[in-house]
């Protein structure tokens, strides 16, 4: 039997295609056609057994919860291999399976001397529990015998490992139907989008991947990929670096609309400057009290003419933005990053949405950076929950609707652009959930765009997200929130380390 090598999914590593369940089922069917019956299930169960033993050295006992489908069959094969290695296996299942591969796995488990029980009582303590109940089959809340099994699994105190997908997590959408948090998830054959965005980031724990010996042509089959655009590859001035000057690095205008909310605009401006923009203007700010001495603080009215050859970052700390003024900026800015209250204004006034969409026909470059609630307003949805339940689809819809690049922020930030394969970002963690970190992302992206006005926006947006998240990853998770001003410094430190 061919044995593949599992690997840990990390923010910066190999190119990783993300396959939805329909594509995955077709790929599995095609791969199985050239193999003996049950081969992929045998490989999956063996991979799970090997990972459990490697991840928990000295493993002495395990309880495996098996469902009636192929995910349960993977668990049965895993149980057989562990049992044959002398590990005590307590095997529970919701019901016998009907598919031939699943029946074969059950028969071989019984032949190996294992006992299958369909009750959830008399559970002695074990070293590890395994969720092999549903896999990619979760598209509604678990019910019946599976729900009963999950209630029993929730009471276990041992570490929890999921085979393929934590039961109750939608593999395509990242929607949580009542899944249990796992310490480790072994993604089989390919990574599913729902594992790395929405609730998946929290529920899966450490994600390991095993391709089961199947070669995947990601260019042909993947609709989405992990964001692998690393800050280490950033080199905007590779040609004649010694003769460049600040004029070659572009100008960024951060337009601060509200005098009461200049902190957000100041963070964006500081980020644009730290990202490497040659000149950064914090327009409309109090010039007698600059947040950074390197920032220039012209009056807001000076922006209009300058924007025709500059990058504008609009909406950070904008308050209730003046619609007429925003309309002028949408028409003038050569490059635009639109965030926060700028997005709320576009959602409120249809003529602003039309002006934003028209930028593409004039070859003007636009990125919007909504959080889920802002995205819901733009899409006319009831609230953030509607976006969170379909993050990938909402980002793609916004990109198409407004004809621009979209950075849908949140757990597993999604980058979507018309005509490009969406990216899901894996770097970063909950410490970014503080006021101002989104302003930093918008400003940093504006700084990158100013330096590289010909670079593909999709890639620049992916680069900014990767950089933003990895700076947070350098702060240990659980050490408290990351102040936005410190985030600018951390991103700049990564920048300096790459020089």
Low-confidence stretches: none
Under CATH, the homologous superfamily of the largest domain reads Ribokinase
Cross-sheet strand order for the largest sheet: 2-10-18-17-16-15-14-13-11-12
N-to-C CA distance: 47 Å
Content of β-strand: 5-15%
CATH architecture of the largest domain: 3-Layer(aba) Sandwich
Return the domain count.
2
The number of helical segments is: 18
Oligomerization state: single chain
Q: Identify the overall geometry.
A: elongated
Radius of gyration: 25 Å
Largest sheet: 10 strands, mixed
- Which CATH class of the largest domain? Alpha Beta
Quick check: average pLDDT?
91
Folded structure, characterized:
The strands form two sheets. The protein has a ten-stranded mixed beta sheet, sandwiched between helices. An eight-stranded mixed beta sheet has the order 1-9-8-7-6-3-4-5, with helices on one face. The protein has helices spanning 21-33, 39-55, 70-84, 100-111, 144-154, 200-203, 218-221, 262-275, 303-306, 323-332, 340-348, 350-358, 372-379, 384-388, 391-402, 437-451, 457-473, 484-497, and strands at residues 7-8, 17-18, 61-66, 88-93, 116-117, 128-132, 160-163, 184-188, 206-210, 224-226, 251-255, 279-283, 311-314, 335-338, 365-368, 405-408, 414-416, 423-424. It has 18 helices and 18 strands. Helix 3 (70-84) runs parallel beside helix 4. The model has no long low-confidence stretch (mean pLDDT 91).
List the helices and strands and how they pair.
Elements: E1 7-8, E2 17-18, H1 21-33, H2 39-55, E3 61-66, H3 70-84, E4 88-93, H4 100-111, E5 116-117, E6 128-132, H5 144-154, E7 160-163, E8 184-188, H6 200-203, E9 206-210, H7 218-221, E10 224-226, E11 251-255, H8 262-275, E12 279-283, H9 303-306, E13 311-314, H10 323-332, E14 335-338, H11 340-348, H12 350-358, E15 365-368, H13 372-379, H14 384-388, H15 391-402, E16 405-408, E17 414-416, E18 423-424, H16 437-451, H17 457-473, H18 484-497
Parallel strand pairs: 3-4, 3-6, 4-5, 6-7, 7-8, 8-9, 10-18, 11-12, 11-13, 13-14, 14-15, 15-16
Antiparallel strand pairs: 1-9, 2-10, 16-17, 17-18
Helix pairs in contact: 2-3, 3-4, 8-16, 8-18, 10-12, 11-12, 11-13, 13-15, 16-17, 16-18, 17-18
């Amino acid at each position: 039997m061919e044995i593949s090598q599992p690997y840990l999914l990390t923010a910066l590593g190999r190119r990783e295609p993300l396959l939805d369940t329909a594509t995955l089922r077709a790929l599995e069917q095609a791969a199985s056609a050239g193999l003996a019956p049950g081969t992929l299930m045998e490989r999956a169960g063996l991979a799970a057994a090997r990972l459990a033993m490697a991840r928990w050295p000295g493993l002495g006992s395990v309880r495996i919860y098996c469902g009636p489908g192929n995910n349960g069959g993977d668990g049965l094969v895993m149980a057989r291999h562990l049992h044959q290695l002398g590990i005590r296996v307590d095997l529970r299942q919701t019901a016998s399976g009907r598919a031939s591969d699943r029946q074969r796995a059950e028969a071989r488990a019984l032949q190996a001397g294992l006992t299958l029980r369909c009750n959830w009582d008399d559970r002695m303590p074990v070293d590890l529990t395994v969720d092999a109940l549903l896999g990619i089959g979760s598209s509604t809340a678990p019910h019946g015998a599976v729900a009963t099994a999950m209630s029993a699994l929730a009471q276990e105190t041992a570490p929890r490992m999921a085979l393929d997908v934590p039961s109750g997590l939608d593999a395509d959408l990242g929607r949580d139907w009542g899944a249990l948090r796992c310490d480790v998830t072994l993604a089989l054959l390919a990574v599913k989008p729902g594992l790395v965005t929405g609730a998946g980031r929290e529920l899966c724990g450490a994600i390991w991947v095993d391709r089961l010996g199947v070669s995947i042509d990601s260019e042909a089959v993947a609709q989405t990929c992990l964001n692998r655009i690393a800050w280490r590859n950033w080199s905007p001035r590779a040609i004649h670096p010694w003769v460049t000057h600040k004029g070659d690095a572009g100008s960024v205008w951060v337009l601060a609309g509200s005098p009461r909310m200049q902190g957000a605009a100041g963070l964006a401006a500081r980020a644009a400057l730290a990202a490497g923009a040659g000149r950064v203007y914090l327009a409309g700010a109090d010039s007698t009290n600059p947040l950074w001495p390197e920032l220039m603080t012209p009056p807001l009215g000076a922006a209009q003419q300058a924007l025709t050859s500059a990058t504008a970052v609009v909406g950070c700390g904008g308050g209730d933005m003046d619609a007429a003024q925003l309309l002028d900026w949408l028409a003038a800015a050569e490059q635009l990053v639109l965030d926060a209250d700028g997005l709320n204004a576009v959602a409120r006034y249809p003529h602003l949405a039309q002006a934003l969409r028209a930028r593409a026909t004039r070859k003007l470059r636009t990125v919007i950076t909504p959080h889920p609630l802002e995205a819901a307003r733009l899409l006319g949805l009831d609230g953030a929950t509607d976006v969170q339940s379909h993050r990938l689809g909402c980002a793609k819809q916004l990109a198409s609707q407004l004809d621009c690049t979209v950075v849908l922020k949140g757990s597993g930030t999604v980058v979507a652009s018309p005509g490009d394969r969406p990216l899901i970002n894996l770097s970063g963690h909950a410490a970014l959930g503080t006021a101002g970190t989104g302003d930093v992302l918008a400003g940093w992206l504006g700084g990158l765009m100013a330096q590289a006005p010909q670079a593909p926006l999709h890639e620049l947006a992916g680069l900014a997200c990767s950089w933003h998240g990895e700076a947070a990853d350098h702060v240990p998770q659980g050490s408290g929130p990351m102040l936005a001003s410190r985030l600018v410094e951390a991103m700049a430190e990564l920048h300096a380390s790459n020089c």
